[in-house]
């Protein structure tokens, strides 16, 4: 992935998705949206399903972070080759 500074340092973008049967909005930088889309494709899941699985993992944590933070952390963990299957 060859990215320019404009691609990396872009302001966050808010998108609406449906998880667990309810509509919610998530604000992530475009780079993270791209990584999330790629991770969902790799796991052959819709983005909504992957985010729902990350949300379940997040809620099981001792001190759950916000959903956007959980997504960023999950993606970083995945990129480092420590993929925790989002079950």
Describe what you observe in this structure.
With 87 residues, this protein is an alpha+beta fold. The chain has four helices and two strands, in the order H-E-E-H-H-H. The protein has helices at residues 5-8, 30-42, 47-59, 67-79, and strands at 13-19, 22-28. Strands 1-2 form a two-stranded antiparallel ribbon. Strand 1 and strand 2 (22-28) form a beta hairpin. The chain starts with a helix and ends in an 8-residue tail after the last helix.
Helical residues, percent? 40-55%
Largest sheet: 2 strands, antiparallel
> Could you tell me the number of beta strands?
2
Secondary-structure-based class equals alpha+beta
Question: What keywords describe this structure?
Answer:
87 residues; alpha+beta; two-stranded antiparallel ribbon; 4 helices
Question: What is the topology?
Answer:
Elements: H1 5-8, E1 13-19, E2 22-28, H2 30-42, H3 47-59, H4 67-79
Antiparallel strand pairs: 1-2
Helix pairs in contact: 2-4, 3-4
Q: Could you give a quick summary of the protein structure above?
A:
This protein is α+β, with helices and mostly antiparallel strands and 87 residues long. It has helices at 5-8, 30-42, 47-59, 67-79; strands at residues 13-19, 22-28. The longest helix is centred in the middle third of the chain and has 13 residues, at 30-42.
